[in-house]
Amino acid sequence: MSTPDAPTLPRWAVVAGLVLVASNLRTLMASLPPLAETVRADLGLSNAWMGVLTTLPVLCMGLLAPVANQLGRRLGAASAVGAGVGLVLVGLVLRGVGNGTVWSLYAGTLVAGAGIALAGTLLPGIVKAVFPAHRAGLGTGLTMMSMMGGAALASALSVPLAGALGGWSTSLLAWAPLAAVAGLVWIPVARHARRLAANRPVPEDVSHALPWRSPTAWLLAAYLSFQSWQFYSSLAWLAPTYESGGWSARDAGLLMSVFTGAQLVSGLVAPVLLDRRTDARVLLVGATLLGGLGEAGVWLAPDAAPWLWAVMIGGGQGACFALGLGLLVRYAATARDSARLTAMGFLVSYTVASAGPATMGAVRDASGGYTWLWAVLALVGLPQLLASSRLRPDADRVGTPEPVVSR
Known about the structure:
Elements: H1 11-22, H2 27-30, H3 36-43, H4 47-63, H5 65-75, H6 77-97, H7 102-130, H8 136-165, H9 168-173, H10 176-199, H11 215-244, H12 249-275, H13 281-300, H14 306-330, H15 335-353, H16 355-367, H17 371-389
């Protein structure tokens, strides 16, 4: 990220900014499930409406992905990421200062979800710009590790913070300072990126449209749709499943921290392995099977090995998502094309997946238990396996010029 005409910002400073920004992209959603039963009882919400609290940010991440792509063009990707972090901060504050009211909980979730959409959509393009091609997986892994590390902390500390700070609303508010720190650290990164943009000639005849005609983009979107449906539904309902079986909120929170901690490890390891393999399908299929077997365990024998099921679901889904992020970089010709591909993939996948938590909550309400919820999640892994098997190494790249056909 340097030119002869602009001072160089050390790469470690950019990486530190990426790590801090990424650490804020899942605390909003991970901090709520351990407190879900308390929140639901205090506010008189149904399971379906509790699912909406996970649906809202996921829906934002889908519907606002093209908006993020456009803002990245107009403001610069780094400046748009900074704006996203600012929205996350505002949303976290709003969610926590309403003294446990329904309107502040939902409004804050919506605002923070919009910020997550802006920052999350543009980060893969920044990774492609910062890291050389043979280290793109490492950059993706660091981003993923930070994202899931923040989620693991949020899951583990939500209940203790609620006890120490006087309630669940102040526990949710406790994650705002982390967003504030990320925003402050990101300011010099955004300023440096603007200086570079001012010294760089504007490219001509570059497409900014989403790659709707690319079969590779559609395959990635399908893969990410099934993966995200499982991940966000598991995130929303793993802790409540075991609380309904007699677990304490603290123990359910620890189970969630194991779930997210497994993602932290697999999310770092999987992209590094991706750097060493031309064909990603073995990794994709293996990770999908691992997560699906964990979901089947919760479905068929929830009390047999709950900690193992949490590790399998978290490890499998963490690897699946990290590999998906890595492929959004690999299957794009340039950083700009990666932003286009990411915007389309997120628009399709998160819009589809946003229905997951609320739909699974409705399944739980209709069936009176969690058995059918986990059965559906395990079965969703089957079409994900199909999409994984078709992501060949020779698939067309987004941004690659079409071949000239002689006549």
